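Quick one, probably user error.
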């Protein structure tokens, strides 16, 4: 359904729309996704109060979808965080989702050769573990001129790159949407740091904001899908378990 297929592109362009206060008009979108984007926009506005964030996401046809599955998926890069989350949740038989082209999309021969090696390595790994794996090719990094936007809006973004300040969770969590219907209704994302210990730490994290925060990522939704940030564990402990496994 186009209401789900439109999610990756809308998620990619929303950061620029929010910065400029530009409205976005889409013919069809998932109702839960639109509600989630409005909630996340509010959170980012708190983090970057100099931004415009008056954007209206206008949709002709809001659709209430159902994933039609009780399955689990995991954003999987092969790094420590996602591998640790896989080990912790291997009994759930999560579908692994790997992205190519999210950052620094390239088409040269060395990049293609590296891609082929990664795909074979993790295809073999998934087969040994009895897991499904999807390789998602995307050109999201080529849709917006990140360096130009980062430069033009550096005061609003407090000197942070666009990817780190706004894009990361929207792109990574939006891309798997077309895969979800009939396959999974829970999406795991390996946490990369410990959660804020108290309100004071949370206030400091707003002062020096980073886009991937638990109270932002877990608001992301479509259909009846839930996003779960997994494993707030220190990196040494994660590495130890991965080595043992």
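Nope, works fine. Designed sequence:
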């Amino acid at each position: 359904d186009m209401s789900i297929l439109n999610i990756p592109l809308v998620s990619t362009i929303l950061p620029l729309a929010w910065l400029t206060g530009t409205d976005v008009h889409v013919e069809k979108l998932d109702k839960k996704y639109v509600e989630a984007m409005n909630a996340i926009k509010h959170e980012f506005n708190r983090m970057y109060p100099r931004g415009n964030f008056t954007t209206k996401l206008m949709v002709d046809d809001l659709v209430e979808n159902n994933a039609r599955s009780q399955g689990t998926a995991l954003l999987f890069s092969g790094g420590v965080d996602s591998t640790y989350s896989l080990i912790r949740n291997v009994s759930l038989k999560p579908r692994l989702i790997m992205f190519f082209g999210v950052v620094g999309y390239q088409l040269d021969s060395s990049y293609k050769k590296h891609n082929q090696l990664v795909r074979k390595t993790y295809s073999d790994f998934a087969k040994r573990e009895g897991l499904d794996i999807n390789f998602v090719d995307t050109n999201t990094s080529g849709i917006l001129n990140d360096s130009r936007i980062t430069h033009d809006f550096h005061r609003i973004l407090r000197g942070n790159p666009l990817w780190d300040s706004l894009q990361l969770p929207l792109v990574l969590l939006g891309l798997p949407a077309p895969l979800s219907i009939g396959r999974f209704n829970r999406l795991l994302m390996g946490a990369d740091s410990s959660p804020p210990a108290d309100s004071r730490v949370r206030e400091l994290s707003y002062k020096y904001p980073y886009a991937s925060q638990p109270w932002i990522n877990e608001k992301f939704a479509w259909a009846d899908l839930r996003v779960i940030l997994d494993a707030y564990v220190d990196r040494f402990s994660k590495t130890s378990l991965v080595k043992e496994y």
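The CA atoms of residues 25 and 58 lie 5 Å apart.
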